[in-house]
Amino acid sequence: MQKYPAYIVICIAYIFGSGSLVMFGIFCYVGSLHLARLGLNEGGTLFFDFCLSIVFFLQHSGMVRKPFRRFFSRLITEAYVSAFYAILSGIVLFAVIIFWQVSSNTVATAKGALRLLLRVIFAASLVGFYWGTKALGFFDPYGIRAIKYRLRGKKPKEIPLTISGPYRFVRHPLYFFVLLMIWSNPYLTLDRLLFNVLWTTWICLGAFLEERDLVADFGEAYGEYKRKVPMLLPWRIHPSWPE
Asked: Given this model, what pLDDT does residue 155 score?
């Protein structure tokens, strides 16, 4: 593997991966950034936003499935597959945020103490998300791990089943904290309600699909984890999994 093309791919993956995540966080906090106004009517606005979301869901969830990754690895070097997935996901997520259209109808607005509480929940969800990524230890959202190992002439190590930090309370803490980010905006316009419902549904469905892969990867060890720890909602004060 040539070093300079590899480093270029790594840099692009970092830029689009981290950049799109930051923009998504800002979008969750403030709502639409009004970057592209298409002048659509109310029905057109909601339909356009719906289509934007579906495109992202299909790209993000479709490309992460093992059959597609096996197919994609025939087209490019296998070590690059995860990085290109991160780059394409970042590009599509940027498109969603840039072209998201705003409805003129407001469903609800939180004020006073409730508004402050929602802002505190959003801040707490950011801290929780960071906690979840640190607990994993091997977190590789930009797909650069395989490239770095390939540059060193080594094979990537097997990823262990990590059960620490927030993973002792809930099996998918990163999804849980993203759901808190999504629903903690105090200004609920009709397009934002559409966003919240669609993305919540997709996250829940994605968690179920991911569980099948995790059971296939870790077998009975993950089966026991499933039996003891809730999937998305940490309903116990004390952790469900021992240290």
From this structure: 75
Backbone angles phi, psi at 131, to 5 degrees: -60, -45
In a domain, 238, yes or no: no
Answer whether residue 134 is part of any domain.
yes
The answer as to whether 242 is a domain residue is no
pLDDT of residue 198: 97
Paired with 189 in beta bridges are: 106
Report DSSP state, residue 108: E
The pTM (predicted TM-score) of the whole model is 0.90
CATH number of the domain where residue 203 is located: 1.20.120
Output the DSSP codes for 140-160. -TTS-HHHHHHHTT-PPPPPP
Q: Which residues contact 211 (CB under 8 A, 6 or more apart)?
A: 171, 226, 231
CB 6 within 8 A of CB 150: yes
Q: What is the length of the chain?
A: 243
Q: Is residue 241 part of a domain?
A: no
- Residue 2's pLDDT band (boundaries 50, 70, 90)? low
Cα separation values, 235 from 56, 170, 176, Å: 30, 9, 12
pLDDT value, residue 1: 54
Following DSSP, what letter does each residue of 24-68 receive, concatenated? HHHHHHH-----------HHHHHHHHHHHHHHHHHHHHHHHSHHH
